[in-house]
Amino acid sequence: QVQLVESGGGLVQPGGSLRLSCAASGSIFTIYEMGWYRQAPGKERELVAVEASGGSPKYTDSVTGRFIISRDNAKNTVYLQMNNLKPEDAAVYYCKFRLRQRGTLRLEECWGQGTQVTVSS
């Protein structure tokens, strides 16, 4: 089994910064893609940023220039550096990995448990 554990959420004032982390553990063979999603109350879950192995990062328009996704392949960890946070960025943030576990050819999607980001003065 694969587990994704997120950390780094919290309360921040508008204009502030937070860094989210998501570490995967378990029987991982290959991680093809790491990404961050968010879901605000009453809204659909939306893609924030995603980076495929060997690819360029992609961002939703509203965070381009403010958020940076990065990864540490040796640690099976993805980060989301969030700068100049706005009240509309407040949401539960989820990481998602597309990966293959050892001993199987099946491509899976694994989600983190979510971490709350609150942006308020």
Descriptive report:
It is built from no helices and eleven strands. It has 121 residues and is mostly beta strands. Strands 2, 4, 5, 6, 9, 10 and 11 form a seven-stranded mixed beta sheet that branches. It has a four-stranded antiparallel beta sheet with strand order 1-3-8-7, with no helix packed on it. Strand 5 (46-52) and strand 6 form a beta hairpin. It is elongated and about 50 Å long.
Residue share in helices?
under 10%
Could you tell me the number of beta strands?
A: 11
Total helices: the number is 0
Average of the residue pLDDT scores: 96
Strand content range? over 45%
Radius of gyration: 14 Å
* Main beta-sheet annotation: 7 strands, mixed
Task: Choose one word for the global shape.
Answer: elongated
